[in-house]
Amino acid sequence: MARRGHSTTIGKFAKLHHDRRVSEIRVLGELLRRERRAVPIGPPARDVWPDRPDPSHPDD
């Protein structure tokens, strides 16, 4: 039975494990936010010039 007012050994390991996971999740979240900011926003290049023919469909 756990002693009142004192951390148990299992509790110490659980806290260490939890803190480590929280840290990993925080780092991954920051990385995801950076990647989202790096993606250019706007229409693809082929939509900018609709009057030009699409190179993947040559006219025969």
Summed up:
The protein has helices spanning 9-38, 45-48. It is mostly helical.
The general outline is rod-shaped
Biggest sheet overview: none
Mean pLDDT: 77
What is the strand tally?
A: 0
**H/E series, N to C?**
HH
Radius of gyration: 27 Å
* Class computed from helices, strands and strand pairing: mainly alpha
Helix content: 55-70%
Please report which band the strand proportion falls in: under 5%, 5-15%, 15-25%, 25-35%, 35-45% or over 45%. under 5%
Helix count equals: 2
Low-confidence stretches: none
How widely separated are the two ends?
84 Å
Task: Provide key terms for this protein.
single chain; mainly alpha; 0% strand; 60 residues
Describe the structure.
This protein is mostly helical. The protein has two helices and no strands. The protein is rod-shaped and about 80 Å long. The model has no long low-confidence stretch (mean pLDDT 77).
Strand and helix map with partners:
Blueprint: H1 9-38, H2 45-48
